[in-house]
Structure formats: C-alpha cells, structure tokens
From TrEMBL:
It catalyses: GTP + H2O = GDP + phosphate + H(+). One of its GO terms (cellular component) is cytoplasm. One of its GO terms (molecular function) is hydrolase activity. Gene3D superfamilies: CobW-like, C-terminal domain (3.30.1220.10), P-loop containing nucleotide triphosphate hydrolases (3.40.50.300). Zinc chaperone that directly transfers zinc cofactor to target proteins, thereby activating them. Zinc is transferred from the CXCC motif in the GTPase domain to the zinc binding site in target proteins in a process requiring GTP hydrolysis. Keywords: Chaperone, Hydrolase, Nucleotide-binding. It comes from Thiobacillus denitrificans (strain ATCC 25259 / T1). Belongs to the SIMIBI class G3E GTPase family. ZNG1 subfamily. Residues 244-338 form the CobW C-terminal domain. This is CobW protein. InterPro entries: CobW-likC_sf, CobW-like_C, CobW/HypB/UreG_nucleotide-bd, P-loop_NTPase, Zinc-reg_GTPase_activator.
Length: 349
C-alpha cells in the first residue's frame, strides 16, 4: 500500500571517523521507529547491546528501531525494507537514516532516491546531514574533494569533537564551513549528544509545520550576489577554498520557462562536476505562482509548484555552490537564456 505521505529519509554523511556512528547511536536511542540503512553491520559499530535479533540483512534494535544493510544498490534495499514493513515483519518505522561510509559520494544516493518512481512514491529525501571533525576537519577539507562535496550538499552540519579542538581551530573551521555552504546551519555536537529535531525537517517540506518553508530552506541573504559580468560585494567570510564559490543570482523580470530549462540543462548536463548544488524560487513568465527548483550536480529534483509566494519579493532567487565555475558566467547564462529565448510557436514544427 502506498502511504498517504512518503517516509522521510535523512542521509548522514561525514568524513572517516568524524562521528557519524556516535550520532547514529543517539538517534537510535532517541527516535524509536527509525530504520537505519548502512553498508554492513560490522562497518558501523552500533552499540551491540542494542542489537536484539538479526535475520539476513535485517536487525531489530531494542527500543523499536530496525537496522538494515544495503545489498547492492539502494533502491532494492528500500523496497525490501518497505515490503517487510508492509507485511508487519518489522516495526512500522516512520523515518529512514542512511549512513554512508566515510568517503562515499552522497550524490549517487540522492540520484537513487529521486529517480526511482517506486521509491519516490514511498520515500522522500528530508535532508542531508554531514558530520565534520573540529580537530582534523580543516586538513580533510584541504586534502579530499569528497569532504568538500559532503559539506556543500548538506542541509545541516554537525561539528563534532569540539571538546578536543582548540577554540581558534573550531572558529576558523566554522568560518570556512559557512563560506562553503552558507545556508546550512552549523550545530556543535559533543559525543553525539543532539536534539533529534536537529536532523529532521531540513528540506523544503517541514512535516512538523506541514508547510513548504522556502525562506528557511533557501536563505539567499546569506550568499553574496553575482551579477552577469561581475561579482558584487565582498565575500561575507574569507574563502579558503578558492575553487569553491557560493553565491546568489537575483533576477527582477519573470523568466522564460524554456530558456531557463535550457540554461539549467546546460549546467546539469555539461557542468555537473562543477555544479555542487543549486536551489531556487523562480518567477516564470505568464505564471502567477512560483516554482521551486533544486539540483545537485546532474541530479535535478522534481519541480515543486508553490500555492502562494512566501513573501512580497517577486524576484527569482537562485543560490549556487560551484567548483571551478565563474559566478558571472552562471549569472549571464541564466539571464541571457531566460530573457532571450522565446516560447516556441506551436504552429511551427
Ligand atoms: N572526544 C570526542 N570524541 C568523539 C566525539 N564524537 C565522536 N568521537 C569519537 O571519535 C571516534 C570516531 O567516531 P565514529 O562515530 O565511529 O565516527 P564515524 O564517522 O562513524 O567513523 P567511520 O564509520 O569510520 O567513518 C570514536 O572513537 C568516537 O567515540 C566527540 O564529540 N568528542
């Protein structure tokens, strides 16, 4: 049976040893009815006293959570989990947390969640949470592109091990994280102690308020603004990662739908490696209500039509996090395509 509302899925990422499992153990204790998906039981040291029964790839945890290893790719695992829930073989979990291994690229997981129709009818991505080690995170960001990507695609950052790191190191890391991903709030989590609300309702849809919360999700005011041809204003913080840019593009006039689609297709198809993330609320020519767009590299999330503008601002507002891509180029591409391209005349083939 298809549920009235898809089950929220949280993707928990973070570099090797950054504290994912420690956070997971807290989640399991505080949020009963959670299904945890992981690569292997052995790989993630979930507290053994929590493991009650194990059967095949499934384990029941005391307190009502269930644990499942990912066999092969994500979609069949989610399907099996769903079937077991439907048959009543396991407790009716209300959320899923997927723990990726330390260096896993989160993008294929997002791809899987968004492009399998069966999965999409039953599960929705709530958000991406990334743990960052306060003591060694700076070096990991310097050395590993995956660590930077994990931070860039996250909706929330959990700064771990601040008890071990000098205050100045933590402050510098916070500044760097804010520059890499301005919209993601950074929470300090020591030994995994966190309010479960910290990892829930992070996406556009807030299940707690039952509303689409565009302003909370987009936060364009935290980005410096790029305009076609030049980059306006000073960066809010010093940008150590010179190849990474986080910026917003604001466009006053309503945009041509087909032109915008072309511009975004060019970015997602030909510049996927450079496009770490974008989000937007868009005013389309001839349409009274805005649409919300969201993409990660080549993965475009389904368009969401809002039933009202969230505020008085009628401009299209885009926020981007890119690597090795000029903000001015992106701004110009959007402006040129969505202003210049004409809606095709249906009379001409
Ligand atoms: N002092 C301190 N230690 C922590 C904190 N968070 C986690 N740890 C320790 O850091 C080590 C690694 O934590 P894990 O939770 O296993 O990290 P992980 O990201 O799951 O590791 P991998 O699965 O190997 O990538 C463990 O020994 C934890 O006890 C913290 O806030 N402070």
């Amino acid at each position: 049976m298809i549920p009235p509302e898809p089950i929220p899925v949280t993707l928990l990422t973070g570099f090797l040893g950054s504290g994912k499992t420690t956070v997971l153990n807290q989640i399991v204790r505080q949020l009963p009815r959670t299904a945890i998906l992981m690569n292997e039981f052995g790989e993630v040291a979930l507290d053994h006293q929590l493991l009650q029964e194990m059967e095949g790839p499934l384990a029941l945890l005391s307190g009502g959570c269930v644990c499942c290893t990912i066999s092969g790719s994500l979609s069949p695992t989610l399907k099996n989990l769903w079937m077991a829930r439907d048959r009543g073989d396991i407790p009716a979990f209300e959320r899923v947390v997927i723990e990726t291994t330390g260096i896993a690229d989160p993008v294929p997981v997002l791809d899987n969640l968004l492009h399998d129709n069966w999965v999409r009818a039953r599960f929705r991505l709530d958000g991406v949470v990334a743990t960052v080690d306060a003591l060694v995170g700076m070096g990991q960001l310097d050395e590993h592109a995956e660590a930077v990507k994990q931070v860039a695609v996250a909706d929330r950052l959990l700064l771990t091990k601040t008890d071990l790191a000098p205050a100045a190191t933590t402050a510098a890391l916070r500044e760097r994280l804010a520059a890499l991903n301005p919209a993601a709030d950074i929470l300090t989590v020591t030994h995994g102690a966190l309010d479960p609300a910290a990892i829930q309702n992070l996406g556009l849809w807030n299940a707690a308020t039952r509303t689409l919360e565009v302003a909370r999700w987009l936060k364009p005011e935290r980005y410096r603004q790029a305009v076609a041809g030049r980059l306006g204003g000073k960066p809010r913080t010093a940008l150590h990662d010179s190849r990474i840019e986080a910026f917003s593009v604001l466009i006053d006039t309503p945009l041509d739908r087909y032109g915008l689609q072309s511009a975004l297709s060019m970015l997602t198809a030909f510049r996927a490696e450079n496009l770490l993330r974008f989000k937007a609320i868009v005013n389309l020519k001839g349409e009274a209500l805005p649409v919300v767009l969201h993409g990660v590299q080549h993965v475009l999330y389904p368009e969401v039509q809002l039933d009202a503008w969230p505020d008085d601002d009628r401009r299209s507002r885009f926020v981007f996090i890119v690597r090795d891509l000029e903000p001015q180029f992106v701004a110009k591409l959007l402006a040129d395509f969505s202003g210049a391209a004409r809606i095709p005349d249906p009379a001409t083939p």
